[in-house]
Amino acid sequence: MRWLLLMAALAAFPAAAPAQVTRGLGLSAKDANAPIQVSADRFDADLNAKSGVYSGNVLIVQGDMRLRADKVRITTVAGKPDKIFADGNVVFDAPSGSAKGDTGVYDVNPRLITFSGRVVLIREKNVMRGSVLVVNLITGQAQLGAKGMSGGRVQGLFVPPPSNPQPHAQPLAPQPAQTPPRTNP
Questions:
Q1: pLDDT tens, 158-171?
Q2: Residue spans of beta strands (DSSP E) within 124-181
């Protein structure tokens, strides 16, 4: 029975990260209550360490959000999720954009998400690159750093939206040339 409870609890833990992220990504509140689907090639639990690991093509889906990684490990404290670690080819997709990194960590209590490694943020045609992204889900603040990157600087490419072309004005009909009135000297 204890094993079944642990498996059910661990299956629900990944929900904490996507459910909290929804507000920051502009998704509706109903998405936070959507069912969570987890699939992986394998699941291993360690009752002594109070952790569970999904490995091999991990896909976590809630509503229209997706988290993909090679491996996702969840640790618990007092039966509740403490940290969720995603390792290897981590990709978080939502309608508003995506974040990619080598690793990702969701620290549940302070509600912080950290992507590290080769971090890439994409929204439409806009792209930002760095090595560490920290998002505070309580304050909505995010910070992208570039420590350890070539040049040590955050990079961004922003593509302005196309300007609205002015409607083609109808050419004015040619006006007859007006000659100034003649004055007699």
A1: 999 888 766 665 55
A2: 126-136, 142-145, 155-157
Q: What is the pTM of this model?
A: 0.68
Q: How far apart are CA 34 and CA 139, in angstroms?
A: 23
pLDDT in tens, 102-161: 999 988 888 888 999 999 999 999 999 999 999 887 888 889 999 888 888 999 999 998
Question: Could you tell me which of 69, 62, 58, 70 has the C-alpha nearest to residue 12?
Answer: 62
Residue 175: inside a domain: no
Nearest residue to 134 (alpha-carbon basis) of 155, 104, 93, 158: 104
Residue 152 belongs to domain with CATH number = 2.60.450.10
Whether 174 is in a domain gets the answer no
Number of domains in the chain: 1
34, 29, 111, 42: which is closest to 66 by C-alpha? 34
- Distance set, CA 173 to CA 167, 168, 177, 178 (Å): 18, 15, 12, 15
> What range does the domain containing 19 cover?
2-157
